[in-house]
Amino acid sequence: MDQIHGLDELSRRVLDKGLCASCGSCVGRCPYVTEFKGRTVVLHRCTVEHGRCFAYCPMTFFDPEAASRMVFGTRAEASGIGRYEDVKASRATDETVAEAAQGGGTVTSLLIAALNSGMIDSAVLTSSIPGEARGRGFVGTTVAEIASCSGSKFAGSHSLSVLREALDQGRSRIGVVALPCQVRSLRKMALYDLKQEKLRERVPLVIGLFCNWAFSPRQFAEFLGKELGLGHIGKIDIPPPPAQVLEVETQGRTVSVPLDLVRPMIQDACRVCPDMTAEFADVSVGMYEGRPGWNTLVVRTAAGAGVVGEALAAAGLETDVFPSENLEHLKEASEQKRTRAAQ
Amino acid sequence: MALISKDDPGRELLLMGNEAVARGALEAGISVAAAYPGNPSSEIIGSLAEVAEDMGIYVEWSVNEKVALEVAAAAAVSGLNALVAMKQNGLNVASDFLMNLNLTGIRGGLVLVVCDDPSGISSTNEQDSRILVKSADLPLLEPSTFHEAKDMVRFAFEVSREINNVCMIRSVTRISHARGNVTLGPLPSARPKPHFDTNIILSALPASLTHPTAHRRFRQAKRLLADSTFNSYQGPDTPELLVITCGSGYLFSQEAVRLLGLESRVGLLKIGTTWPLPEELILSRLRDAGRVLFIEEVDPFLEDNVLELFAEHNTTLPKVSFLGKKSGTVPDLGELSPGLIIGILADLMKVSRPHADEAYSSTATDALRNFAPARSLAFCPGCPHRASYWAVKKALALDGRDGVVFGDIGCYALGVLATGFHQSKTLHAMGSGTGMASGFGMLGRFGATQPAIALCGDSTFYHAAIPALLNALHHQSDLLMIILDNSATAMTGFQPHPGSSVNAMGSQAPAVVIEDLCTSLGLKTVIGDPFDLDESAVTIYELLQESGTKVLILRQMCALVGAKKGPRRYTVTVDQDKCLGDECGCDRFCTRVFRCPGLNWDVSLKKARVDEAICAGCGVCADICPSHAIVRERA
User: Which residues of A18-51 are buried (b: 16+ CB within 10 A; e: fewer)?
Assistant: First the structure.
């Protein structure tokens, strides 16, 4: 408990320094902290000495060895894309899923398989806020609800805040789709579980998403609204290199914004984050650069292998070989993020 | 029938000091009484309002003290007797008019009663009002007993009519709010018909003519007061110590002398006409006193003036050593008490203090502990201000620009304390919050980024905030004025104000509606319910994002008025299964932060519970519990 402090210290070390990753792990049901328009806001001083807010925040501290022992049963693999069993190319076979997907629809397919197999009874997801550039947490319990959350979000969304909602509902097998920072938070919850809520057992599946960075939700929204004068925001995408643009669907048209223009809006938390491929997830999913309509699928744990197996068995997912040169390239990119973060 | 209007001369009644003042005004045959409520003065006009119809007098709660004095002055310049009452802060508001009225004078009788609040028990400041009479050239009387308070008012009207100028009376909390025996005098049967003599212009200008007149009236007053029976001496002819005292100090001193058995050694010179001084009486006593002690509340007013008199006559007087506030013998601020004076006199006279039971103090403390909960000044259970302040606090946190709340005078002045989450960052005079916010809202041109909020109650809005709001509007100051409308002048006892549909005398009156006034000025005006915490916070947040002057009225009836008018809205309970107590992680949010006195922390159960005896049933706390353990049901 030595390293776990309370809200004051969280403010000092993370929030006041602008290092909040907008993961949402601290804002569920706490009367002292709330999320407002994409910002984590402290409302009042809390005197709890060892707070869940501080303990579960991915930015306060993270012990990769402890997390690795718990998740993989081995020492941490601090290079490349971290510890993994297998890397595949994958995509959804269901046309509706594939249609709605930003990439290959792998995440949605895995979740549907996990739900149908009973591996999970609910899923903590990120849904889009109609017309806005940011998302919000959502607890899905049906295939339709899960499918409605597909598509990438490019700004922090505090989606972990609804994990509390799922826990309060008494859900005992919660699957979570999480950015690398959120995966770290979930692993800290399982490791420290300050209120003995059986968080390790109750979150049996963590699907990690590849992530290089996310925009600060408030800055990004202000930029799109005030500086670019864009109204109702639809789908957002970054086409593969060398495009170097951000494509924003807005009121029936697509606006291309040079990436250099939006880079200043990247959260500072992302600049110091070493984890591109959600190294502590059960399974990580990302884009497959150069193969449109396909995802990169990194299987890391038995639970990860299990859900992939279920999806394959249910014929919701198909996989293909992920060429070794692509894997090398992915490892290189991941290493680069690790290096940048250390600087 | 009310006590103060009993037509029963010679009868002895137990009256509050302020009621005695009101009775004195009735015996003096007043036609008009006006005031803006302010403790400790409020019961004077309050009790007159109750008998206004029976006595055939006109009584009003004016919009502010200056207007109250003007209303009374209009009667007085028309030949009537009029009384105006206020607290020390009120005198400041009224002083601009007073410092001109003193130069024109009046034609009837006008008595200005100022009730000072030593220690500022129900005030923002501590201030001695007596200083003003010297620059205003007006006579001042200070009652020491309740009967004297009544008789002094009657006498003050005689003086006022004689000198054609205002006569001032200064009371203090322990005279105004304590009770004592008062013997009734006769009530007049007829009142003069008002007439304004238009042959004479009442203009303070030119001062070269009016100031000498004021001086002449003052000299006249000096002659009238010189032999007043309100001044008296008791004690040996050549006392070892002469106590010169006035007001509440006299009773305290009398008690101290008696308890210490010093009657044959200490003389008490009681001064009732503290300005101008009864010079001959004082000089005669100074001739036989080697040592003088001044006992009076707040500033060394009597002390200074006697020292001045002594200096004037020093060549004919023996040496005297003076003790008082200046020598550090008596505290130079705060209320005095018999105990304090006993200590001072015992030390000076080298006698031992009366023996007190050693266990008394601890027994009293223990007894108190069993009855009084340990908490600081707080808003009442169910007070809408607590909810409003939480909404403000939340909105400012959501906004994130370190916004500044300019506070004002009213119950909500407690917003500088924990009960208002320390949200009010300034607290000065009536309406000053809006005035300061108006100024702060102009500082954006120099790079200020903090948004400004002016907080103001409904009564304060009418009293002094409207000019400040007009100033902000006209100069396009960036501020949000939040009017905490609890539909009452709550802090002083629910007196009506211009927004009320009844007046002081209980008659129907047209209400000036705040939002109608604001919208007629072209101000963006939003009305919210402070009990809806989250919505209020978001409304405040959104208004803060807009430039210019905006008004938000957070309207919810004062919980005390609500309790009088009807049953509770909700029955509130804490579901003991859902409340996780210290296990929750909420850090006792309801009882540590929100702190409604209706919620208690049960030390044995280590959980929150509702104190059913005092819960006002507002139901707001049900929205603040993260575990939804606080349950409200329609009562």
Answer: ebbbbbbbbbbbbbbbbbbebbbbbbbebebeeb
Domains defined along chain B, listed by start: 3-184+205-226 (3.40.50.970), 232-349 (3.40.50.920), 384-564 (3.40.50.970), 567-634 (3.30.70.20)
Contact with chain A for residue B624, Cβ under 8 A: yes
- To the nearest whole angstrom, how far is the Cα of B586 from the nearest Cα of chain A? 7
Nearest CA in chain A to B400: A41
Average pLDDT of span A117-140: 92
Both A133 and A42 in one domain: the answer is: no
- The B residues from 567 to 606 touching A (CB cutoff 8 Å) are 583, 585-587, 589, 592-593
| CB-CB under 8 Å, A30 with B626 | yes
Residue A251 in domain: no
Instruction: Tell me how many domains chain A contains.
Output: 2
Measured CA to CA in angstroms, residue A9 lies from A16, A57, A289, B58, B215 at distances of 10, 11, 40, 63, 68
Quick check: A30 and B397 CB within 8 A?
Answer: no
Model pLDDT, residue B361: 82
Residues in A closer than 8 angstroms to B586, CB to CB, are: 30-31
From A168, which residue of chain B is nearest by alpha-carbon distance?
Answer: B627
Q: Is the pLDDT of residue A310 over 90?
A: yes
Q: Mean pLDDT across the stretch A293-300?
A: 96
Cβ neighbours of A199 in B, within 8 Å: none
Instruction: Please tell me whether residues A180 and A90 are part of one structural domain.
Output: yes
Q: Quote the CA–CA distance of A297 and A321 in Å, as a whole number.
A: 10
Mean pLDDT estimate for chain B: 95
CB A32 to CB B589 under 8 A? yes
Do the beta carbons of residue A266 and residue A238 sit within 8 Å? Answer: no
Residue of A nearest to B583 (CA): A195
Question: Which residues of chain A neighbour B624 with C-beta distances below 8 Å?
Answer: 31
Note whether A25 and A72 are same-domain residues. Answer: no
- Cβ contact (<8 Å) for B587 and A29? no
Mean pLDDT of B579-586: 92
Percentages helix, strand, coil for chain B (3-state, rounded to 5) are 40, 20, 40
In angstroms, the separation between the Cα of residue A36 and the nearest Cα of chain B is 6
Question: Does the distance separating the beta carbons of A42 and B397 come in below 8 Å?
Answer: yes
Say whether A43 and B397 touch across the interface (CB within 8 A): yes
Residue of A nearest to B397 (CA): A43
Instruction: Write out the residue range of the structural domain in which residue A129 sits.
Output: 66-214+268-342
Sole residue written with tokens 């297998």: A86
Distance CA B251, CA B264 (A): 18
Residue B626 has its nearest CB partner, among A29, A36, A37, at A29
pLDDT digits (tens, 9 = 90+) for B20-40: 999 999 999 999 999 999 999
Give the residue carrying structure tokens 């009564």: B459
* CB B622, CB B582: distance < 8 Å: no
Confidence of residue A99 (pLDDT cuts 50, 70, 90): confident
ipTM: 0.90
**For residues B586-602, average pLDDT:** 94
- Are A97 and A105 spatial neighbours (Cβ–Cβ below 8 Å)? yes
Residues of A in contact with B627 (CB under 8 A): 29
B1 confidence band (pLDDT: 50, 70, 90): low
Question: Which of the four pLDDT bands, split at 50, 70 and 90, describes residue B635?
Answer: confident
- Per-residue model confidence as pLDDT tens digits over B72-124: 999 999 999 999 999 999 999 999 999 999 999 999 999 999 999 999 999 99
Cβ–Cβ under 8 Å, residues A151 and A128: yes
- Binary contact (B587, A47; C-beta < 8 A): yes
Co-location of A165 and A280 in the same domain: yes
Token pair 């009990």 in the structure block, residue: B531
